[in-house]
Amino acid sequence: MLAREGKRIDLPGKAVFIETSKESANPFEFLRDVTRSQGDAVQYSSPFGKIYLLNHPDYIRQVFQSPQFHRTSMVTIVLGEGLLASDGAGWKTQRKRVAPFFNRASIAKIEPAIRTSTRTMLERWESIADSGDELDVAAEMTELTLTIIVDALFGVDLSRQLHPLGEALDVLLNDLGAMGCTQFNTPLVFSSADRSRFHQALTTLNRIVADIIDKGRRGNSDPDNLLSFLLETEDEDTGLPLTDVQLRDEIVTLMIAGHETTSLIISWAFSLLAANPICEGRLHHELDQILGERLPDIDDLNNLPYTLMTLQESMRLYPPVWFIARKTLYAGRVGNLQLPENVLVMVSPYAMHRHRDYWQNPEDFDPSRFAVGNHMPKYSYIPFGGGHHLCLGMNLALVEGQLILASIAKRFSVRPSAGRVIEPAPAITLRQRDGLFATLERRRPGSAAA
Ligand code: HEM
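Above: inputs. Below: predicted complex with protoporphyrin IX containing FE.
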């Protein structure tokens, strides 16, 4: 059941070209089928021209590390020139600017906000559990992680705007996903009503972000947080304060990058645990042993390895960022492969994490793959990307994910509603198609099977 230790497979010298005249309704099947049947370097035709799909750790390392590869402009329509969409010198300056807000000391400062918001949600859940009513755990996780990130990074209370903000982000991320999927030949059906819904959502998002900036300028936010810092920052080239557009792009990027992905790893973990009662029992046992009656805090996390392994395995099967696109700035070799200038290159954590040469029984959920001492080739596990664009929020996401998963699982068992199929949906992130509707069972202390 473990990851295949240290196995390295020879790099192919040529990309297999496949003619993809057929539309593929499901990009996950497309990725899995193509990489399994055609190998680690595949070239296929798409509405964007020929795309190279690379699914070997050595190729992936080069794509992440070499200056030959740059980001594409696909998400700039929403994220502007923020950190997640930019590259080159401008990106480097931006990354240096905000990196200190994601170091250990800053995460420790954010931790109380994570615990407070989680506890408030758990108190609300008690009466829902007692009533036996269904709730959408996926939507709850989105709301929780959005509240935490806005509070932690920008220090403003957005509780009254949370609902329209969540709805706008939902539309934008789904529609961006639909646009992104055209790279896997999934047809895009976008009516004029869809177009106007998209623009309305963008207008709502921009209005709320303008409000955040305004509150920050009027001093209605914590002086130590990222928003205050950005408001005081000067542009390196002009020496002037950041423009409203620069501020908007940074805030939107961190707000989107900082909540959606974290919420997904928790809701996927709960649907996988519910389908794997032995793993759920192990998790409950760990929590009961280490925490007793308490809810966790940051100092407990080192003693909760199975909680971390559960998240790592959930991210293997359902990596929130399921494809990463780059374009070649110039022609050059990747391994034995010659890539022309200005072509699209695709890396898919989803495909790499299910590669049979690197993962035994890749479709099975087995957190113990990630036990200390089990080694896997570098770049065969890439939920946070790698190289110079390695996720800036990785440590925050892991701390937040563990705290929330452990707190919920300490108090409740999540029981997905019968008759609802839980399947992945290709938004710009990897979501659950119809959310995660479930009832909650209160857990009595010591109720875990040892
Ligand atoms: C489980 C949660 C998360 C996952 C799976 C995830 C995944 C990723 C991935 C794959 C990338 C690389 C994208 C690329 O190479 O183009 C990335 C970049 C990034 N992530 Fe995350 N992320 C998560 C949480 C967060 C959080 C909490 C934040 C903080 C606000 C964050 C902020 C960023 C930023 C700013 C970048 C751009 C880094 C750069 O290009 O320098 N992420 N993330």
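The chain has a mean pLDDT of 89.
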